[in-house]
Design brief:
Helices cover 52% and strands 7% of the residues. It has 4 helices and 4 strands. Strand 3 and strand 4 form a beta hairpin.
């Protein structure tokens, strides 16, 4: 009976460990940390974030997320993932500066995590300026 309890406890510990490792992997994938790169090339999510950023965000936040006279740098002060999602979807007003929300934009709303992956890679210094080299599909 005692060995059965030991085995059950061991299984419980292993399950908890697996859940923690899985959660950490999901966080890394959602935020685009260095795991989005293999041999210095961007994965599909990070590369798509680069494309979406340059199609919609660079007009205000500058090339490569470095900021402009309209919008702040996203490389030097990237919000946490949840705050970033909220700001992109709902918009933000600071003083006289206004960023509209993109919750209804089919080119942005479904790809907020891809945008974050790209900007996180830029903020972490893993990705330089310009078009990132892309992993072959």
């Amino acid at each position: 009976m005692r060995s059965l309890q030991t085995v059950m406890l061991l299984l419980l510990v292993l399950c908890m460990l697996a859940l923690m490792i899985g959660a950490a992997a999901q966080d890394r994938a959602a935020t685009g940390t260095a795991s989005g790169f293999v041999d210095g090339k961007a994965d599909a999510r990070t590369y798509n974030g680069y494309r979406r950023y340059n199609a919609s965000c660079n007009h205000c936040h500058g090339p490569d997320g470095v900021g402009s006279t309209f919008g702040p740098s996203l490389v030097s002060a990237l919000p946490a993932p949840d705050a970033f999602r909220r700001i992109v979807r709902e918009g933000k007003t600071t003083g006289t500066s206004v960023m509209r929300g993109f919750a209804d934009d089919p080119n942005i709303a479904p790809y907020v995590d891809d945008l974050y992956a790209y900007l996180q890679a830029r903020a972490d210094g893993v990705l330089g300026r310009g078009r990132p080299p892309q992993l072959e599909p």
